[in-house]
Specification:
By secondary structure, this protein is mostly helical. The protein folds into two domains: 1-104, no CATH class; 105-196, no CATH class. The protein has helices spanning 8-11, 25-37, 59-64, 68-77, 80-86, 92-98, 106-114, 120-127, 130-133, 136-144, 150-157, 162-170, 176-195. It is elongated and about 65 Å long.
Length: 196
């Protein structure tokens, strides 16, 4: 396994700590399966798995010193504050497992979908989850986030309310393709009204 002295969190998502490369996706999945089944022997502070009203000031420091296996366990079982920090973890495998935490709320998913620095892989996972995309705010955030894969953003344009589609048609803050798709929808609706 990976040594506990890693500081990937401070390095940010773009510059993982060299020790992070020591864990494979298969190993991470094996750890996650054991955590989900409750058969893991990974020791993490119980307080980090409880929803608490106050964020512990040394939380980031504690997460930095934790091995990848511990952070994967917290991604799957941790409190909201821990999940929000782990979404910015230097290890993409840790970040991915946060979305598998059964306590992830709609508000967290909306915030992730709106985050213009979120990874394409994370946005793809959100977009492909039917439970999350039932939420209008999630669909709207995915459409307006330039990091959302284009094919997925286009899928949700038609599901937006007319007012939002009209705003997208004029927007310079979205992909030109998304804006063009919104304009086509507006023109179709206007011609149906005029001709119908």
């Amino acid at each position: 396994m990976v040594s506990s002295g890693d500081d990937a969190l401070s390095a940010g998502a773009d510059a993982p700590h060299p020790a992070e490369e020591a864990i494979t996706e298969a190993e991470a999945t094996q750890i996650a399966d054991a955590v989900i089944a409750g058969t893991d022997t990974i020791d993490v502070p119980a307080a980090l798995m409880e929803e608490a009203p106050e964020v512990e000031k040394s939380l980031l420091v504690r997460l930095k010193s934790m091995p990848v296996s511990g952070r994967i366990k917290l991604a799957l079982r941790g409190s909201r504050e821990v999940r929000m920090l782990l979404l910015r973890d230097g290890n993409r495998l840790v970040r991915r497992f946060v979305l598998k935490n059964p306590r992830v709320s709609d508000d967290e998913i909306i915030a992730l979908a709106r985050n213009r620095t979120a990874e394409e892989e994370m946005l793809r996972e959100v977009a492909e989850n039917r439970d999350w995309t039932k939420n209008y705010q999630v669909r709207h955030a995915l459409v307006t986030n330039p990091k959302t894969p284009l094919v997925l953003a286009l899928r949700f344009v038609v599901s937006l309310v007319e007012r939002d589609i009209r705003l997208l048609a004029k927007s310079k803050n979205v992909s030109a393709t998304v804006s063009a798709q919104a304009r086509r929808i507006v023109l179709t609706k206007d011609s149906q009204r005029g001709g119908g």
